[in-house]
């Protein structure tokens, strides 16, 4: 049997290719939309992808189930659980608790494990060439390494200023406790009834906001989680109330784009098909497009370089590990369908960034440039921490997480997570200067570029909160020794 984990560091998301070595057939679980890696893996192993499925209606990335099925002819399997509000709106064979999918000598058995979402399925995998008993669990967003899926995510997303998320069937605010109780029952009645040797392969790793303390190791076992995961003691003592309280406490912020992901995944993401190579654009063409306000320029450099000068009106979405996440903070294609022009070192990097963009449903890229020379430029404004007192009417905007803000912030600052800024512009004053900061400056540079593009008067705090806190510490030390 082949079991291969395909991991996206950007979104901390895992999908799996399960293949039968004898029949040369494979099934893909929770694929992302850029599907070349699955096809390449199957081809290298001489396998044909004959089935594709997902554990639940995702909120943090756009599913590639339809994309992969369209490209390979694979049969689509989808959860039929969760009730009428949680039914997929696109075609596929429905799976219910206990149903099985057979791929050669391999069997995947669906387990209904609600809690993170009402329709959530996990898959018990049996390698029939080795045993008639299951050996693996693809747990999706049910059980992670050291953690479990948060039940409040959909309620929080529905409560954001994205009315469309409710149309997707997301839970109304206040039902997070219901989800937590479902999670308790799923752990008790499904997960903990499995043998301790079952290997657990989760849908996310450390860094995902689908849990609050997900471990970095790629897999675990039922026995290890039973003994050492934080929730184990609550289950051992049948302490449902303590479990609910601890599970719901301290969950990280959900970016606003999750509402769009949930809605599109419910309806079925648009199929991209074969994508042509990205075109390198010349400065004259891009300047003309910018003058006509026909494109959005994306400066993908580190914020320190951006602060030396960037394209006027550009969004700063730094290339690297969090490119898709930050892009989804800064670009809402439903609100602004203008295509993007990317700053890249060449076609390979540009097309790699395009792959990351489609994972969050940003599909329109006009092309790329390799330099900003010849384009209309501007220089973002910065302010040093020691000069903050002079801006007596400014709004200090903290775009870190709520837990970071609670642990310490600049007095008088307004908190708004960077992934919610674009959806909450009405909460920010247009007639006052906004001073944006995060911990080190990366997130606040993204948020500040969004606000500048929306016409706000924005200044970034040089060195961000770390510099301000260091200055406060130095001042305290000086006073103590005076």
Keywords:
482 residues; alpha/beta; Metallo-beta-lactamase, Chain A; Oxidized Rhodanese, domain 1; 3 domains; 6-stranded mixed sheet; 16 helices; 20% strand
Structure description:
By secondary structure, this protein is of the alpha/beta class. It folds into three domains: 2-267, 4-Layer Sandwich (Metallo-beta-lactamase, Chain A); 283-378, Rhodanese-like domain (Oxidized Rhodanese, domain 1, 3-Layer(aba) Sandwich), CATH 3.40.250; 382-481, Rhodanese-like domain (Oxidized Rhodanese, domain 1, 3-Layer(aba) Sandwich). It is built from 16 helices and 23 strands. The chain has helices spanning 36-44, 65-72, 153-159, 164-167, 176-189, 222-228, 232-236, 240-248, 257-267, 283-291, 303-306, 323-330, 347-358, 402-407, 442-453, 464-481; strands at residues 2-8, 13-20, 25-29, 48-53, 75-79, 93-95, 100-103, 106-112, 121-127, 136-140, 199-202, 220-221, 296-299, 310-311, 315-316, 340-343, 365-369, 377-378, 382-383, 395-398, 414-415, 434-437, 458-461. The strands form five sheets. A six-stranded mixed beta sheet has the order 1-2-3-4-5-6, covered by helices on one side. It has a six-stranded mixed beta sheet with strand order 7-8-9-10-11-12. A hairpin with an 8-residue loop joins strand 8 and strand 9 (121-127). Helix 5 crosses helix 8 and helix 12 (323-330) crosses helix 13. The radius of gyration is 24 Å and the shape is globular.
SSE blueprint:
Elements: E1 2-8, E2 13-20, E3 25-29, H1 36-44, E4 48-53, H2 65-72, E5 75-79, E6 93-95, E7 100-103, E8 106-112, E9 121-127, E10 136-140, H3 153-159, H4 164-167, H5 176-189, E11 199-202, E12 220-221, H6 222-228, H7 232-236, H8 240-248, H9 257-267, H10 283-291, E13 296-299, H11 303-306, E14 310-311, E15 315-316, H12 323-330, E16 340-343, H13 347-358, E17 365-369, E18 377-378, E19 382-383, E20 395-398, H14 402-407, E21 414-415, E22 434-437, H15 442-453, E23 458-461, H16 464-481
Parallel strand pairs: 3-4, 4-5, 5-6, 10-11, 13-15, 13-16, 16-17, 19-23, 20-21, 20-22, 22-23
Antiparallel strand pairs: 1-2, 2-3, 7-8, 8-9, 9-10, 11-12, 14-18
Helix pairs in contact: 5-8, 12-13
């Amino acid at each position: 049997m082949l079991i291969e984990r395909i991991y996206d560091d950007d979104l901390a998301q895992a999908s799996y290719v399960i293949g039968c070595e004898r029949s040369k057939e494979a099934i893909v679980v929770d694929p992302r939309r850029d599907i070349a890696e699955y096809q390449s893996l199957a081809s290298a192993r001489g396998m044909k992808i004959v089935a594709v499925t997902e554990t639940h209606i995702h909120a943090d990335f756009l599913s590639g189930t339809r994309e992969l099925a369209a490209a390979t002819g694979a049969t689509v399997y989808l959860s039929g659980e969760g009730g009428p509000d949680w039914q997929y709106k696109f075609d596929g064979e429905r799976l219910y608790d206990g149903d099985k999918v057979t791929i050669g000598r391999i069997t995947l058995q669906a387990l209904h494990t609600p809690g993170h979402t009402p329709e959530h399925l996990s898959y018990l995998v049996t390698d029939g060439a080795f045993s008639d008993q299951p050996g693996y669990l693809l747990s999706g967003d049910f059980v992670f390494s050291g953690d479990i899926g948060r039940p409040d995510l959909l309620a929080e997303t529905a409560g954001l200023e994205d009315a469309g998320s409710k149309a997707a069937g997301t839970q109304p605010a206040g039902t997070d406790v219901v989800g937590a109780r479902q999670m308790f029952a799923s752990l008790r009645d499904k997960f903990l009834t499995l043998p301790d040797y079952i290997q657990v392969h989760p849908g996310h790793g450390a860094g995902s906001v689908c849990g609050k303390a997900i471990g970095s190791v790629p897999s675990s076992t039922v026995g290890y989680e039973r003994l050492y995961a934080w929730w184990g003691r609550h289950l051992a003592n049948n302490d449902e109330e303590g479990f609910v309280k601890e599970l719901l406490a301290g969950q990280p912020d959900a970016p606003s784009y999750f509402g769009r992901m949930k809605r599109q995944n419910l309806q079925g993401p648009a199929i991209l098909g074969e994508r042509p190579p990205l075109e390198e654009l010349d400065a004259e063409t891009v300047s003309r497009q910018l003058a006509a306000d026909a494109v959005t320029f994306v400066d993908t450099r580190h914020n320190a370089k951006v602060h030396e000068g960037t394209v006027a009106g550009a969004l700063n979405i730094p290339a690297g590990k969090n490119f898709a996440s930050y892009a989804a903070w800064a670009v809402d294609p439903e609100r602004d369908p203008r295509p993007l022009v990317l700053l890249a070192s060449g076609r390979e990097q540009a097309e790699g960034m395009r792959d990351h963009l489609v994972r969050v449903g940003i599909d329109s890229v006009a092309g790329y440039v390799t330099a900003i020379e010849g384009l209309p430029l501007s220089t973002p404004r910065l302010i040093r921490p020691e000069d903050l007192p002079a801006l007596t009417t400014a709004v200090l905007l903290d775009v870190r997480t709520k837990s970071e803000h609670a642990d310490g912030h600049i007095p008088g600052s307004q908190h708004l997570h960077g992934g919610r800024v674009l959806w909450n512009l009405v909460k920010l004053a247009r007639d006052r200067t906004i001073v944006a900061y995060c911990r080190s400056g990366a997130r606040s540079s993204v948020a500040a570029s969004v606000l500048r593009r929306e016409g706000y008067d924005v200044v970034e705090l040089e060195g961000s909160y770390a510099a301000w806190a260091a200055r406060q510490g130095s001042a305290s030390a000086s006073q103590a020794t005076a």
